[in-house]
Amino acid sequence: MNNFEFKNPTKIIFGKDTIKKLESEIPSDSKVLLLYGGGSIKKNGIYDQVKTALAKVDVIEFGGIPANPEYSVLMEALKVIKGEKITYLLAVGGGSVIDGTKFLSAAANYKGETPWDILANNIKTEKGMPFGTVLTLPATGSEMNSGAVITRKETQEKLAMGGPGLFPEFSILDPQVITSIPERQLANGLTDAFTHVLEQYMTYPIGALLQDRFAESILQTLIEVAPKVLKDPTDYKAASNFMWSCTMALNGLIQKGVPTDWAVHAIGHELTALFGIDHARTLAVIAPSHYKFNFEAKKEKLAQYAERVWNITEGSIDDKAYAAIEKTEAFFRELGIDTKLSDYTQDYEGTAEKIAERFTDRGWMGLGEHQSLSPDKVEKIVKMAY
Amino acid sequence: MNNFEFKNPTKIIFGKDTIKKLESEIPSDSKVLLLYGGGSIKKNGIYDQVKTALAKVDVIEFGGIPANPEYSVLMEALKVIKGEKITYLLAVGGGSVIDGTKFLSAAANYKGETPWDILANNIKTEKGMPFGTVLTLPATGSEMNSGAVITRKETQEKLAMGGPGLFPEFSILDPQVITSIPERQLANGLTDAFTHVLEQYMTYPIGALLQDRFAESILQTLIEVAPKVLKDPTDYKAASNFMWSCTMALNGLIQKGVPTDWAVHAIGHELTALFGIDHARTLAVIAPSHYKFNFEAKKEKLAQYAERVWNITEGSIDDKAYAAIEKTEAFFRELGIDTKLSDYTQDYEGTAEKIAERFTDRGWMGLGEHQSLSPDKVEKIVKMAY
């Protein structure tokens, strides 16, 4: 096991009818900016619950944060924060709204001239403006971590940011929100959380027995509840386990003491930036090719995953490892998630070269747990995913 | 799954040669009281590492905190805290030293006249004196939770306390400390952590699929590493998984959203108070009888535990459940832990009645996950454990 440090101060408020607890979490003398996305919260009743809970607090609203939170939109919100002397941010949404709020938390306290530098120069935020979240879409884990990914259409870029000052003070997770999420987004959430675990697990054995089992626990639980969540989002048992699994998949715990990969995300982000493909779907496109391309380096963990998660006990290590990749791809397809780039666009020729060139330009010479995936290898993986 | 709230702000610093990181965790203008136990830290080099790391800080020492931290000893430490105007506490030890330090953290800020009231009246501490820990004995999980148990010889009492203000600010976990721990204490630590998980798991199914799997993950890992830790404490892979498992067993995570039992601890504490039996050993004495006595209420989870943790797949639910109790008792015995009260004392007659009477006197009319274990039932369980 590698040495590690772990601290996660976010307060989780989990369960039925918990949105009303907002009232006691935000200081009553705050001036709050309520941030949300496309407005679905006004149709499903969540907006009303939030407003009722905040009846005694001074609240201004900023809606319209898009999926893949867009820098130019967030810069408009930043103007409101400064102009209205906002002191507390409340994200009501999924990973995009929460990630956008994290950027704003950092940008509100940033002393430099150009907030984009927080992303371009990977500046760690030690202290952001305080914020909380009401999660409306289980998927990214952003509700209990300190990272965010921001998109800039102007330059077709999608970059990560973070820092110890960007944990939500609290996050409210009411699994009942799932009943109003479209099936497509539920499938995305399941795929996203599943791949988050894979990125922290599918590397090489390092003797972190407990972390491995925790990761496998989340994968097993997602596999168990996925068909139930899609079939009947009012199934509270399935919904609550789905929601808690998504949070635990990326709150830092299972990545402590182990090598992590994240190449699937790095490559996937480019597919979103270039084609606008849903984040989760880009992961399902890249992961199988990535594991096949890096088969020798990953086969021991792939075989362990085959045995413990998929109950594949027959055959050699290679047999089991390969079967596990097939199982993973089949799992995504059963969720209704296509796993080839050509399923999403016919304009894919040259994509691999373009992504490799971008990675070269950024100086990203070695992705993955061994820092060995050079741009020419990335190019091959993307081609395998056509 | 039940509704829950979860917040654990303790910073964990885990790994080889991490004690030196103390230097950056305690504010340099602090006046520190360094608390420890019987002095083994002076023989195994931990004391020297701590003193070196704190070379630039004003430090006063208070040693001699006994196993089952004793109120009268802690009251002496409290005098030092007040007399010397201490601002920061540092526990260097196992669960007893850390629990004692939590009491001092609470008592230092307590406005009432008699600090014992914190325990007798179960007063929750919202803000204690800040403290950190260097863990020297994996077992209790006290390094990452906000609870403590304090003993008072004078009245033969052992009571619990806690509150959101009693999380350590940081805890340093260097698995190399295990090399200097006597085998008896390693066996105690393994048993203690194992039983902590059982208390939060061995109840009834409530659809908390992920929490169940996390609990099973810790049990499986402890079973896997236990013989290795006892055979060769320098086995870093075993030591590090043992240490992290003990922390995860009682840092709050696996108890969220599920019913919990804790009757084994409540009864076990009495055996320590009456006979001075090591805490962990009292748990091994009570748990098997408790599970046999409450077999009908617990058999579904017992059978799940049998299948997933002990690979017992044959037989009826009752068969599997019973076999799992036998396996658990055998596991304790393989660690060198006796599982009958008569293994520890020949003076056991009347113990069951005495404990039942104490519970009656305290008004503890219903222990366990169903609040149904009345003193007369406790009496029967203790008799089964003779």
From TrEMBL, chains A, B:
Positions of the Alcohol dehydrogenase iron-type/glycerol dehydrogenase GldA domain: 9-175
CDD domains per UniProt: BDH
Keywords: Oxidoreductase
Transmembrane segments: none
Gene Ontology cellular component annotations, sorted alphabetically: cytosol
A Pfam family recorded for this sequence: Fe-ADH
Xref: InterPro entries: ADH_Fe/GldA, ADH_Fe_C, ADH_Fe_CS, BDH-like
Example GO molecular function: alcohol dehydrogenase (NADP+) activity
Fe-containing alcohol dehydrogenase-like C-terminal domain location: 189-386
Family per similarity comment: Belongs to the iron-containing alcohol dehydrogenase family.
Protein name stated in the entry: Iron-containing alcohol dehydrogenase
Organism: Psychroserpens burtonensis
